Amino acid sequence: MAENEDGTEKTEEPSEKKLRDAREKGQIPRSRELSTLLMTLSAALFLYLYGPQMMADMQDVLIRGLSFQRDIAFDTQKLFDLIIALIIAAIFMILPFILLMVFVAIISPLLLGGWAFSTKALAPSFSKLNPVKGIKKMFSAQALMELLKAFAKFVLVIAMATAFLYMVFPQVLGLGVEPKNLALMHSAELITQAFIFVSLALLVVAVIDVPFQLWNHNRQLKMTKQEVKEEHKQQEGNPEVKGRIRQVQREMSQRRMMEKVPEADVVITNPTHFAVALRYDPDGMAEPMVVAMGADFMAAQIRTIAQEHNVMVVEAPPLARALYYNAEVDRPIPYDLFRAVAAVLAYVFQLRDSGKAQTVDFENLPIPEDLQVPEAN
């Protein structure tokens, strides 16, 4: 069971944030054995497919370098040109192999942990010089695993090499009686086969090492219950701070809402518990909009501001309750309340334009039953 430095057990699986932070620090699962296996197998496969061609090219380079004409030996410029030509031929001969090894060396680590470049991992850390931590690492599970892997590789490679040599020993003895060209090609073939055969020994080590590295990486990133709580608290935020932020947001929203009350055409009240301010421009608006609403103290403020700016206040308790519980600020009124609101707006516009209006029974406006709210609410 993983433990923290203070002795507390790490029993919880690492969170997404923990894994993300670890990746940013360059702490990702890596298996050197997997990379070694892929590089050796790639080299063995390349030599198996293109080895004969490389041996032919090498033979040509050696022949050109060792059987030049006599006049070249006494001409510095010709000798220099020959050396340069041989070097270029040798480079082109081994360049595909080098490019393959570089490609595999870059790609193979990505198969397990993906790509993670971190400047934090490159920064100097004095904690790495701590001798106590160094001693702990020497006796850690990781160090033990590395020791077992090194011993396993040694045993397996020796065993595979011995087995292969035993199988091809008659062919090795026969190389001495073969023609030199055939013996050279046969030797290259045997070396390539031995390389492939011995490389397969690393497959056993990699199959064990890859799951271990994944398990060890997850074990190192495990968290204590307290760490989980602290991370959750940081992500969710302090409840008191969040409450204060919500309060400030409500106050700002209410302040903006109150600033729109003077633009309203009418304020419909309960008369004391609820107040809903409506605005409607027949020329520029398709439907009436709710610009402000509130209950109790907020309702009193809306009525006060409306009176200060000569906005008409209409007492229509059923409609005020229906709007308060079914409408939203800065949104059109509910469609089912259009007839009731239209009756109030017609009354307001007639009274504002001509100073008189037909009497309206505000207590019995056409409000659908499903939108009616009892007075007790």
UniProtKB/TrEMBL annotation:
Its main location: membrane. It is a multi-pass membrane protein. It comes from the Bacteria. Residues 1-27 are annotated as: Disordered. Required for formation of the rod structure in the basal body of the flagellar apparatus. Together with FliI and FliH, may constitute the export apparatus of flagellin. The chain crosses the membrane at residues 34-51, 82-112, 147-170, 190-215. Residues 7-27 have a biased composition (Basic and acidic residues). Keywords: Bacterial flagellum biogenesis, Bacterial flagellum protein export, Cell membrane, Cell projection, Cilium, Flagellum, Membrane, Protein transport, Transmembrane, Transmembrane helix, Transport. InterPro entries: FlhB, T3SS_substrate_exporter, T3SS_substrate_exporter_C. The keyword Kinase does not apply. This is Flagellar biosynthetic protein FlhB. Belongs to the type III secretion exporter family. It is found in: Cell membrane. Gene3D superfamilies: 6.10.250.2080, secretion proteins EscU. It comes from Thiomicrorhabdus marina.
